[in-house]
Amino acid sequence: MTAIGWAQIALVLAAIVAAAIPLARYIAAVAAGRVTFLAPLERAIYAAGGIDPARGMGWKAYTLAMLAANLAGFLLLFSLLRLQGLLPLNPQGFDGLSPWLAFNTAISFVTNTNWQAYSGEAAMSYLSQMAGLSVQNFLSAATGIALALALCRAFAGGGLKELGNFWADFVRMNLYVLLPLAIVVGLAFVALGMPQTLAPYVEATTLEGATQTIPLGPAAFQIAIKHLGTNGGGFFGVNAAHPFEGPSALATSLQIWSHQVIPFALALVFGHMVRDSRQGWALLAVMLAFVLAGTWIVYASEAAGNPLHLAAGVSPALGNMEGKEVRFGLALGALFVATTTGASCGAVNLMHDSLMPLAGLVPMFLIQLGEVLPGGVGSGLYGMLVFVLLAVFVAGLMVGRTPEYLGKKVQAREIKLAMLAVLVLPAAILGFTAISLVLPFATSSLQDAGPHGLSEMLYAFTSAAGNNGSAFGGLTADTPWLNTTLGIAMALGRFAYIVPMMAIAGSIAAKPKLAASSGSFPTHGPLFVGLLAGVILILGGLQFMPALALGPIAEHFLLFAGKTF
Amino acid sequence: MSTTIRRAAMLNRALLLRASLDALRKLDPRRLVRNPVIFVTEIVAILVTVLAARALAVGQDWTFQAGIALWLWLTVLFATFAEAVAEGRGRAQADSLRRARTDTRAKLLLRADDRSLFQPRASTELRVGDLVLVEAGDLIPSDGEVVEGIASVNEAAVTGESAPVIRESGGDRSAVTGGTLVVSDWIVVRITAAAGSTFLDRMISLVEGAARQKTPNEIALDILLAGMTIIFLIAVATLVGLASWNGQPPSVPVLAALLVTLIPTTIGGLLSAIGIAGMDRLVRFNVLATSGRAVEAAGDVDVLLLDKTGTITLGNRQAACFIPVPGATEREVAEAAMLSSLADETPEGRSILALARERHAMEAPALPDGAQVIPFTAQTRISGLDLVQGSYRKGAVDALVKSVGGQAPAELRAAVDRIARAGGTPLAVARNGQLLGAIELKDIVKTGMRARFDALRTMGIRTVMVTGDNRLTAAAIAAEAGVDDFIAEATPEDKLAYIRKAQAEGRLVAMAGDGTNDAPALAQADVGLAMQTGTQAAREAGNMVDLDSDPTKLIEVVEIGKQLLITRGALTTFSIANDVAKYFAILPAIFVASYPELGALNIMALASPESAILSAVIFNALIIVALVPLALRGVRYVPVGAAALLRRNLLIYGLGGLLAPFIGIKIIDLILVLLGLA
């Protein structure tokens, strides 16, 4: 590790937090309907959809509207991907996707996972990229934010029956937050050298005289929303490591900024909406602490280098550069790894498969902890609040009162629903991984034996169920078994979590909001931050320890004992 | 509840023996299913037992499996034992209560207006509304309301207090309890409770825990624990698939050991014991709650409504200072006041002597020979003493001024007004027919109340004084006592309205009361502490009854409620924090066969994989027994703010829970090695 490396990391994180503060104020204003500079367009959309934005929805109506929107999005995207061969804007003449791959990809983009079992430049027409994947990048992100806003409102008031209007939240987040940000960031990416064109791929003749096809496309703006919406589905197969998708260190820094700024801002939006900004800062502090810790472990493990390489005479000063982009270096690589997995983005600018074992553990573990650090846009905040309820419940009893959070009593119903939600990840991740590892037709997808092979499978289901979408690598994912099971894991990780979470919102909203007293459990300040971090580690992480011990942890000790597989 | 029970040892031999038998009885899976964590442990124990038996039958090595099975059974048994001990302590109290509930012959009146006409009727056959005559020497057959007569009643059977109390028709002392003894005179009682549902019956079933239902927080905690159990079931079950990818999956007993050490057996095993013990602590404190829910609500209380008289103040007025008129000295006033009170045996009179001694070092002389005592009468409102050296008088200001035949000096009138405004009572003092000054009598706030209210405030509880005094008086006493708010000139409706208003703001309210007109407020309050000496209506309306009839105990009731919740939270935190160390014991032991390098995780340097697994299981079982006393006694409650309390308990039970098993498992491993078992 170097000082300049840490300076890069600090600079990017400072830029994120600095921007999150005004952005949070703006998003809160949009959520309250106070931002109206696109009012005519907004009204036209409502009129076309027959929506009354002022009509409040209870948690059931809100959830059903969300599910309807997402189901429609899934069906549209599935049809588009199947039929892309017959549709225009297909200069390379790609065929429609196989049903398995279309199912997997459609679920993937609707759930904000953006797991890619395909390689963009070798399978997707420009129409599929723009009208299918890009559009879902916006819609799935807006869905997440809308749900988080509904939960914030539940904590903000007392005795509420309604959580806002899903359609209004959905439209406003797209129009006023995601679109403007994507335009600005997209322009910046164009300026930094990303292509944005509908021209066909370029044929080039290399110095040796060979012919090389250089893929192009409308990349810059899709990449902007891919990061802003923590989607992560790359335009090109190797994602942000591709020279057109990650042209420079500055571009990669801006990408990190883009996939962190909204999740961090949403923590502060929560503070604004419950009218106690300290609450938002406490959540942000927990998120930031995990991002820093994850970055540090990745950076330290990679900088220490691979003992086998060192033994072979590689300079220790280089660290482990296998699978890295020399343009970005270790520091920005480490920060990218921790942020893209902590934030449910899933874009990658280096090969996770080539990370040192303990460094490879970090992205896996950050996803397994529930994608709340800071998590996906919206999903990070609502996932974090579920953990907050559990933390408040466990430790809150220790102050001798029925636990309460922001004046809302945490009782049996909330705990039941929170535990249902928390069950989803271990069930989906561990269940599918364990089954896949004993099925020969599933293990044939694995590139490596031993603990590393286990990590490859574990990572895939972790990434899918956590709606992250990043790939570890070393796994042939485009098989009927993996396309189907990973698709199911993605749907479970998204919707099986959202439904109990929204039921919590409904239950919390209806409760009276009690005034705080010196007998109330303080939910800001370092003590609570530490407590929440501990509960996330213990309730969110312990169940994955046996699996991690057999994967990256075993690999770590084996590697340092000189054994590879 | 008699004093003998109060002194009963927390754990004695007979109780432990009976609890052990009960613990075995509770192993019945049909009963255990109510406790998901321990139920899963029992299923796993059965499974491992079968496997050990099979190994024995086919001649494989069975000792390790049998060892695991044995300690899994002990885990279950320790959990049921904890519950049995908690129940056993209540049962001992119930047995002594039951002795008071003997069948009696009641004298059933045939006509309401003629108490000479009655027929004997077994107390068990009485119906609600029946009128019975109870005379000196009779046991009162059932709960009821005195409708005629007055009698002294020995209620020791219920309260443990053997001094008889007066019970009479009308007023606030009309309730009688079945099983108590009329010592003198007679009363006619209208029966208000049928056999089997009397106060005594309710008490018995409450302390026995027979009617125990899970409280809201307990249910929520149960769900959390069940959820964690499922999560760890998933983690352990999937390990079979994960581990078979590269080597052999761990054997079933090993997986069973991992599962049982990870699921929260500690808190799962102690949860119901904590609840029962919480009720029991209240009972030992001579307060009966009608449900565990009420005890829990006590911990949540935000507002305490306290009656001024008897709760906040001593209830009798005491001399607070001497005020001279111009021309007299304070010392002269003190001396005259002292002498005029020499023969005054009332508390006010004694307090004047005490004040004179305290302020002016005047020792009251013995009553001199030849002194003539002028007693206080309602007509004169003056009392005093005629001595050789002169006559000394004290009395109501207007009466004394009139008797000396003069005008009160302006300074005296001002002093009198000031005293009245401050809620005190002024007395005038005269020597030889000449006004010297005034004595201020004040309602004295009990010592230590201000500190207790401060402590309540740091706990986030507001105290509200309820008094019939006027606003000014109430404000003065409220300021002196240090309460947060007061209700002056309070009517029962005012109390009810205040409670409703606080509840509408989302606060929980506790109050104590005894009179019939307190009943609506007692019923409305979240915690209504009725006095045993109060009316039947009040006792029915409240959800707790104080057998000592001391309204101040409301504060302790709140503390007991908090202690109950804290104990649950602390042991939950401890139990969950334990898991980290258990991983370090078991994971390397399980995987070391496939990956010997994972032995590096064995940071406790446990002797062998078998001893590591066994040590973790043994620790997991023994910690339940080790924590039984804490569960029964409750975590010590310190009245500090929530933030400080959380910091303290997180440190002890969170950090302690993280570290304790590392030490415990290592010690058990060393012992196993010493005994040659590993």
UniProtKB/TrEMBL annotation, chain A:
Transmembrane segments: 6-28, 61-81, 138-156, 176-194, 256-274, 281-299, 328-348, 355-373, 379-399, 420-442, 486-506, 527-549
UniProt cross-references to Pfam families, sorted A to Z: KdpA (PF03814)
Recorded topology in the membrane: Multi-pass membrane protein
Keywords from the UniProt entry: Cell membrane, Ion transport, Membrane, Potassium, Potassium transport, Transmembrane, Transmembrane helix, Transport
InterPro entries assigned to the protein according to its UniProt record, in alphabetical order: KdpA
Main subcellular location of this protein, as a coarse class: membrane
Subunit structure: The system is composed of three essential subunits: KdpA, KdpB and KdpC.
Family statement drawn from the similarity comment of this UniProt entry: Belongs to the KdpA family.
Role of this protein: Part of the high-affinity ATP-driven potassium transport (or Kdp) system, which catalyzes the hydrolysis of ATP coupled with the electrogenic transport of potassium into the cytoplasm. This subunit binds the extracellular potassium ions and delivers the ions to the membrane domain of KdpB through an intramembrane tunnel.
Protein name per Swiss-Prot or TrEMBL: Potassium-transporting ATPase potassium-binding subunit
Organism: Falsiroseomonas tokyonensis
Gene name as annotated: kdpA
UniProtKB/TrEMBL annotation, chain B:
Residues binding ATP, per UniProt: 344, 348, 376-383, 394
Pfam family, one: Hydrolase
Residues at the active site: 307 (4-aspartylphosphate intermediate)
Binding site for Mg(2+): 514, 518
Catalytic activity entry: K(+)(out) + ATP + H2O = K(+)(in) + ADP + phosphate + H(+)
Record Gene3D superfamilies: Calcium-transporting ATPase, cytoplasmic domain N, Calcium-transporting ATPase, cytoplasmic transduction domain A, HAD superfamily/HAD-like
Residue stretches making up the P-type ATPase A domain: 120-208
EC number: 7.2.2.6
CDD domains listed in its UniProt record: P-type_ATPase_K
Localisation: Cell membrane; Membrane
Signal peptide, first to last residue: none
NCBIfam families xrefs: ATPase_P-type, kdpB
Function summary: Part of the high-affinity ATP-driven potassium transport (or Kdp) system, which catalyzes the hydrolysis of ATP coupled with the electrogenic transport of potassium into the cytoplasm. This subunit is responsible for energy coupling to the transport system and for the release of the potassium ions to the cytoplasm.
Family, as annotated: Belongs to the cation transport ATPase (P-type) (TC 3.A.3) family. Type IA subfamily.
Protein name: Potassium-transporting ATPase ATP-binding subunit
Organism (species): Falsiroseomonas tokyonensis
